Amino acid sequence: MLCWSSRRCEKQVLRSGLLDLHAKCGNMEDVSQLFYRMGERDLVSWNVMIGGFAFQGFAKNAFQLLREMMQEGKMPDYFTLGSVLRVSFGGGGFMKVSQVHGLITRLRFESYNMLAGSLVDAYSKCEGLLCALKLYRNMPTKDIISCTTLITSFACEGKHNRDAMDLFKEINSMQLGMDNMILCVVLNICAMYLS
Questions:
Q1: What is the distance between the alpha carbons of residues 60 and 131, in angstroms, rounded to a whole number?
Q2: Are 19 and 49 in contact, with CB atoms under 8 Å apart?
Q3: pLDDT band for position 83 (cuts 50, 70, 90)
Q4: How far apart are CA 89 and CA 183, in angstroms?
Q5: What does the alpha-carbon distance between residue 63 and residue 97 come to, in Å, rounded to a whole number?
Q6: What is the pLDDT of residue 174?
Q7: Is 90 in a helix, a strand, or coil?
Q8: 3-state secondary structure of 76
Q9: More confident residue, 91 or 40
């Protein structure tokens, strides 16, 4: 029997849809009330909640929900983990990103390029540039977004201008294409060299 034909599954889909609607409207207080009143929470409803809090910038809530999800015996998927990595963790961010990274490794999601790129971005934002560079070097498929993130982070830190220029040469040789952001950052690095 297909899940879609049962009333229970239809109600679950409807509830998850309502959660998603409220989350997209930014009304996380109402979303939380609906979520905690649900008798059964599936992966979709957890992802809506975690993604909603992450999108609204509530890192603490998103990370706490990930913990609750796992305590209830539900395992996150790559979408869940990508949502958690989207937020800026502020103080203690490196430790939290490392924990999510460990979970990604334990769940064997390292081959998902989207997650590798999200990890590069998250480590770059929390002073983990060497970890970000190592991840970038090991990415199955390098992309312009991850490379731009690294080059921008190197330039902002100011200590790794040589690394930034090496990455620029690398993506230029790989013919990944350039965007305005990366060109602007590289021009700023060149200007720093000249001054």
A1: 23
A2: yes
A3: very high
A4: 28
A5: 10
A6: 80
A7: coil
A8: coil
A9: 40
Contact yes or no for 121/146 (Cβ under 8 A): yes
Choose among 86, 194, 192: nearest CA to 149.
86
The pLDDT of residue 80 is 95
Q: Provide the H-helix boundaries in 25-112.
A: 28-37, 43-56, 59-71, 78-86, 93-106
> Per residue in 39-61, is it b (16+ CB within 10 Å) or e — as a string?
eebeebbbbbbbbbbbbbeebeb
Of 89, 38, 94, 90, nearest to 68 by C-alpha is 38
Residues contacting residue 27 through CB under 8 Å, at least 6 positions apart: none
Contacts of 165 (CB under 8 A, 6+ apart): 186, 189
| Count of beta carbons in the 10 Å neighbourhood of residue 89 | 20
Determine contact, residues 182/168, Cβ cutoff 8 Å: yes
- The pLDDT tens digits of the residues spanning 127-186 come to 888 999 999 988 888 888 888 888 888 888 777 778 888 888 888 888 777 778 888 888
Q: Above 90 in pLDDT, residue 79?
A: yes
Q: How far apart are CA 144 and CA 183, in angstroms?
A: 12
Q: What is the CA radius of gyration of the chain?
A: 20
**What angle in degrees, to the nearest 10, is found between the helix axes of 93-106 and 113-125?**
160
